[in-house]
């Protein structure tokens, strides 16, 4: 059985600063994987857990 792909994608036209903010307030509790892609290759992969306070 295939695993369901729940990935979300988005694009930014230009970023004036050299910082990107990821707001996880509306994500459900659980573990996540963040992949940063450049020229169709993953250049950074990090895992994080969102827990209820």
Strand order of the largest sheet: 1-2
Poorly predicted runs = none
Query: What fraction of the residues are assigned to beta strands by DSSP?
Result: 35-45%
Instruction: Please state the CA-atom Rg, rounded to the nearest Å.
Output: 14 Å
Helix content: under 10%
User: Biggest sheet: strands, sense, closure?
Assistant: 2 strands, antiparallel
Indicate the structural class.
Answer: mainly beta
Overall geometry comes to extended
In round numbers, the mean pLDDT is: 85
The arrangement of helices and strands along the chain is: EE
Distance between the termini: 35 Å
Describe this protein's structure.
It is built from no helices and two strands. Strand 1 and strand 2 (41-50) form a beta hairpin. A two-stranded antiparallel ribbon has the order 1-2. The mean pLDDT is 85. By secondary structure, the protein is mostly beta strands. It has strands at 30-38, 41-50.
Strand-helix topology:
Elements: E1 30-38, E2 41-50
Antiparallel strand pairs: 1-2
Notable characteristics:
single chain, 53 residues, mainly beta, 2 strands, 0% helix, 36% strand
Give a brief description.
By secondary structure, this protein is mostly beta strands.
């Amino acid at each position: 059985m295939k695993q369901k792909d729940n990935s979300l994608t988005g694009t930014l036209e230009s970023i004036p600063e050299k910082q990107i903010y990821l707001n996880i307030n509306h994500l459900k509790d659980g573990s996540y994987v963040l992949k940063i892609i450049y020229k169709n290759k993953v250049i950074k992969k990090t895992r994080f857990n969102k827990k209820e306070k």
